[in-house]
Write a structure and sequence with these properties.
Blueprint (H helix, E strand, L loop, with lengths): L6 H19 L14 H4 L3 E8 L2 E7 L7 H14 L15 E8 L3 E2 L5 H7 L6 E6 L2 E5 L10 H12 L5 H4 L3 E5 L1 E5 L1
Antiparallel strand pairs: 1-2, 1-3, 3-8, 4-7, 5-6, 5-7
């Protein structure tokens, strides 16, 4: 991520996400991306997570950790997926659309975090700044930086992330996991 998004680009992405959610929930085809709205930044490769909330509670969250197509296409894809493909929740229903709020997180490319041991790992994490990816063989899980608001304790944060990955909560203490960090530019409706 080179430059921050402009307020106009953020509004375009929020509009695209909302449009994508509504057409997906209504089982309508997604309209083609209108190139007249697309800036160079929105055309460039980008990775995002789209988070849906309802009355402040999580209602769906899907994203990509690394870019594989344009930021605009990425947001559209993950907005629809957050509404219909997050296995933790039933599909968003049309009657809920007015209650759903959209949050978009634009990610930097994840970078490996080198650490010696569990204490060094704790020392190198930046709560509220770092999104964290843990990898253990084929298992992988991530928490966006916003999760620090709910789990501010570094050890508890890592334990919950291990649990999300399907490992024992103390796996981060007992073995040397692959750890990557990234930052986000977050905005919402």
């Amino acid at each position: 991520m080179t430059a921050l998004l402009t307020p106009e680009e953020k509004q375009i992405l929020l509009w695209l996400a909302r449009q994508s959610i509504e057409t997906a929930v209504r089982r309508q085809p997604a309209p083609a991306l209108d190139a007249t709205f697309m800036t160079e930044t929105l055309h460039a490769d980008g990775a995002s997570f789209v988070t849906l909330t309802k009355h402040g509670a999580l209602r769906g969250c899907i994203g990509a950790l690394e870019p594989y197509h344009s930021l605009a296409a990425d947001v559209r894809e993950h907005a629809a997926a957050a509404a219909l493909e997050d296995y933790r929740f039933p599909n968003v229903q049309e009657s809920e659309l007015v209650e759903i709020e959209v949050e978009i997180s634009r990610l930097t490319v994840p970078v490996p975090l080198k650490y010696r041991d569990a204490d060094d790992l704790l020392a190198k994490l930046h709560p509220g700044v770092d999104g964290v990816i843990l990898r253990d063989g084929w298992r992988r899980a991530t928490f966006l930086p916003q999760v620090w608001e709910k789990i501010p304790d570094k050890a508890e944060f890592l334990a919950n992330l291990c649990h999300k990955m399907g490992s024992a909560p103390d796996a981060w203490r007992k073995k040397h996991l692959e750890v990557l960090v990234y930052q986000v530019e977050e905005f919402h409706e």
